[in-house]
Amino acid sequence: MTLPTRRLGPIEVGAVGLGCMSFGGSYGDAGAFDVDAVINRALDLGVTLLDTADAYGASEAAVGAAIRSRRDEVVLATKFGIVSGPQAGQPAVVDGRPEYVRAAVEASLGRLGIDHIDLYYQHRADLNVPIEDTVGAMAELVEQGKVRYLGLSEASVDTIRRAFAVHPIAALQSEWSLWSRDLEHEIVPVCRELGIGIVPFSPLGRGFLTGAITSTDSLSAGDMRHTQPRFADDAFAANLATVDTVREVAAAHGVTPGQVALAWVLARGGDVVPIPGTKRVSYLEENVGAAEIALTAEDLARLEGLSAVGERAVDPSWVNRSTPPPAR
Questions:
Q1: Is pTM, for the whole model, over 0.85?
Q2: Residues 153-201 pLDDT 10s
Q3: Which helix (H) or strand (E) holds 299?
Q4: Does the annotation count 100 as an active-site position?
Q5: Which end of the chain is less crowded, N or C, counting CB atoms within 10 A of the terminal residue's CB?
């Protein structure tokens, strides 16, 4: 198939991107698969948006090495702002200080082995730093040619508007799936008003909506999903039952549940480019195939009623924040 393209503001990319968080080990052993094979197959299929972050362990270095000979085919996105706790075992913190922005981009460029980043996201807004200061520093990177376009991740309406007033924002990344729809009421309309593309992460419910996970026993010991509310024992059983509807729709089309879940996200609009992550070429090909599926009005009506048991993995304060951070 030829993957159609979509636009994230001024950026043209394949309609399905590739999330590269798992390349750093967050979903188990990152060494148990071939990063080069996955990324090269993605590019062959027309997947051009590759998404990583400095907080994803070895992911940036792995992605950078894999694209070395095909850099011109890639719209490379990475993120800054989530920093490991000051001591082992302490929670991560968010850093949006301008001086950190400048240091973070140099570190990412070095790990990626490139001279510019196509799309640079603030991974989370820093409550202690005015967004104007952070985005102002990011805008300097554009002027210097180190970054082409700017993005935000899990930002509130207030943060988006204030950031956009400083510099155009090309894309907003946030969780969006059949099970995570809190951004639809306010965030999506504001993005569309401002011409900001939307990049849903975890569009497959962290793999749950594929129907392939029937027990947490199948997850490796280091898999981050062991700590997430929707994978807890009671919630897991309830959520398995809701996947049955996705299976039924998939069976009617002769496709997989994961493809139906992705097709639903793609149907949200032409400015939506999901970034499912995978460590397997077969799953990558399946994800790309979702772009060919046309769900009927009846399908969409059945899927609209689905919801998950348990909170999503992100602290809701990232999304629901509407009060400007204090001035320093």
A1: yes
A2: 999 999 999 999 999 999 999 999 998 899 999 999 999 999 999 999 9
A3: helix 297-304
A4: no
A5: C
